[in-house]
Amino acid sequence: MNPDLPPSDEHRHLEFVSDRLRQKHPDVTGEVICETVDRVHHRFDGRGVRDFVPVLVERRAAEELVRPNQIHQVPG
Length: 76
Hints:
The protein has 76 residues and is mainly alpha-helical. It has helices at 7-24, 30-42, 53-65. The relative contact order is 0.20.
């Protein structure tokens, strides 16, 4: 990803991240995944280099989604 890309492109990439996480974690609600991606993404606010932000967000969000102390089951 080019550092000169407008923020909207970064957000588009984050939508792809959310989609991939939904596929990998079908037991987690879409709302929880979006909240997790958003929270992790905000950890990178104010950082100058943005090239790898979506990759880093995906890795950290995936780690948070599989923590055993967090329950993200779909209500059933």
